[in-house]
Amino acid sequence: MAHLASPAGADFASGDAAYRRGDFEAAFREMLPLAEKGDVRARHNLGVMYEKGQGVRQDHREAAKWYRLAAEQGFTPAQSNLGTLYAGGQGLPQNFAEAAGWYRQAALRGDGGAAYNLGLLHVAGNGVTRDYAEAQMWFRQAAEQGHVGAQTELGKLCEQGAASLEAARWYRLAADGGDAEAQYRLGFLYDNGLGVPLDYGEAFGWYRRAALQGHTVAQYYLATLYANGQGTPQDLKEALRWFSAVARQGDVAAQYRVGLMYGNGEGVSGEDFEESAKWFRLAAEQGYAAAQYNLGLQYARGEGVLRDPVQALFWFSLAADQGDPEAQENKARLTKKMNARQITAAKRLLADRQPSKKQPE
């Protein structure tokens, strides 16, 4: 993120003071003549103001111009900010190789944000060779400066390299800094005893912190701990609340779990097959085999939906095609009870659907 350079000089200080009190137009008037005379700090700060639209109409092209002038004078923050404009294609054509070049110059001068961004480029292979060792080096540089995002990314690379103990250390630093992804990942390590002792209480605490920040996967795992009574007393109402929050975001596994809970009367006053069928259908339409099977059962039994053997066979068939053994068994059993017209109708539905064979992760 772009930030103003710190003041250092009487001519510069008045413009900086105006900026800090929120008088951006006055700050711009003070900075412009200094920048035109070659003051590197003023040039960088004009770039910031153009980028953010402070005291002047937002103009990324002008921001890039001033950042470049300062960057070519060796001003580290401007080099990093110019790299970010290149990476985002703001004010100039997107060019990851150019972004990497400017990030590298800034990172070599100790800029933690630039080192972090350069690491991300190496992970993705954007503008540079995909190189996890190189990425790890840059993430470590930034992480040791306290860059929370870099601490999280370094933890991920350590975890991928089976260095769970070191991963936990970096995740904890980032998690203590409020990073939701790190909080979730630290919770996952405790949940599975990876690099740390198995501790559902710790897992619950970290999942909850991430979940309260809106981290979807953490919300799902938090719901699971509530449902299982792990790390916290079992609370099916809370489990349903968190599963529902994730399900509303389109997560098929959560939609399936919500369907199960309504169908079993868990976390609610009693069984609610209509609500159960609604959630099973949402997951089933996305190709989730277990939901397809359960929706088939509801059609076969007339639970929450009108009894319909054609629909039951349709959903059993979709789940069976994905290898669900119970669906395969129920499909065979139901087919024996159906007449030729019903079987033909189900086959027609299957032909019209052309479902994805890929099971959602």
Automatic annotation (TrEMBL):
SMART domains on file: SEL1
SUPFAM superfamilies, per database record: HCP-like
One Pfam family recorded for the sequence: Sel1
Protein name: Sel1 repeat family protein
